[in-house]
């Protein structure tokens, strides 16, 4: 009878744990979806909310607004981390979910620059800052919540499910964007259809709030609260005590800064690179990244599980080192796959397509076909605007998927174990605050600035006439990952002792 009771008890614990993981993951996935729609649509947003006379400046402005959401994430970590350590994990990330969903919905309603002028980008910036604050409180709460339910020795595996949500959020945002574009058509999507993914988020948030309202508080936090041991000043305990502050700085410089740049290089900068430098068609580039993400996402769970067996440090540092050593060769290959000067054109197949729309300038498109299946579309409008768009052939398409999948694999190595690693560095009473700050500085500031700084470095190198200007954007993530690797190698413990 006791064996049956023990089995039932184990089954009940597993059911509760997976319920906790599901509820936390759904909400966190939706928050990432909301946060990343902006980045996935940055090229279109730059034309909607900024002057069109300088496309590069408009794109950089859009990326700067995108980056602003990352920069304020550490402040959100402080505000909501403190709230989470005093009031509780559950109610804190309910608040962040409402803030995130409301901001995303409102971005979809703001009129463009041509209607409201500078008021439009300023409102978008304000809402983007609110998004950043909300995400600064969400992730730490979700990771802490799951970790405090997970049995000791399996935290890497169980928290890795939360780690999948950032990539899945990006995947879902790309899927919704591509589907909407196909339904409404390219021209309508660029005119008004891009708002649909923003507006649709309010439905997802409603579902997530319903699920999270049914969750119970973390058992470890509930125990602390019942014993009257909840921290009265988590900020002072986290950053005012030398020993804990040392662990916060070590977590930032030896782990999360390098992890952050690897994450954003492998996913966001990769997408930006093939769209802007490679000129790959918007839909095809989104599909390529989405497929790479789909193939790579399972490795978050694998490396989280593996970190329970061999430790977090070696896996995370290996991912950083691989990025440092291989980013330049990978991006050189991505560039060459879209460089038509290296391909052989079938000139006999060249065609000119003309599109006439009443009341609008005619559009002339010259289509170049190449022996490897690549197509290059050179579009010229009656107003003098020109645009080049590339469509990969089968071989180029799947090679590009593979090269981005390799980078996603690095992402899973650095990101899969990081939640368990951070949770185990800090005691329960100040865990939400202590782990959230280094995570969001590493990801929000070091990582979140990657697309903006990389594009700016490429632009500067191009103006200077550099022969391989397209690789210049990689110096930033390579440098940060290298520094983080060295600090982590020297100072990080292979398997920190969990603190309760």
What does this molecule look like?
A 4-stranded antiparallel beta sheet has the order 1-2-3-4, with no helix packed on it. It contains 21 helices and 4 strands. The protein has one domain (2-338, 392-491): Growth Hormone, Chain: A (Up-down Bundle), CATH 1.20.1250.20. It has 500 residues and is mainly alpha-helical. Helix content is 73%, strand content 5%. α4 (73-86) runs antiparallel to α19. It has helices at 2-40, 42-49, 55-71, 73-86, 89-107, 113-116, 119-149, 155-184, 186-193, 195-213, 219-226, 234-239, 242-276, 282-296, 298-310, 313-337, 394-415, 418-423, 431-447, 450-463, 475-491, and strands at residues 351-355, 363-369, 375-381, 386-391. It comes from Siphonobacter aquaeclarae. This is Sugar transporter. Its main location: membrane.
Question: What's the topology here?
Answer:
Layout: H1 2-40, H2 42-49, H3 55-71, H4 73-86, H5 89-107, H6 113-116, H7 119-149, H8 155-184, H9 186-193, H10 195-213, H11 219-226, H12 234-239, H13 242-276, H14 282-296, H15 298-310, H16 313-337, E1 351-355, E2 363-369, E3 375-381, E4 386-391, H17 394-415, H18 418-423, H19 431-447, H20 450-463, H21 475-491
Antiparallel strand pairs: 1-2, 2-3, 3-4
GO cellular component, one term: plasma membrane
Pfam families: Sugar_tr
Subcellular location: Cell membrane
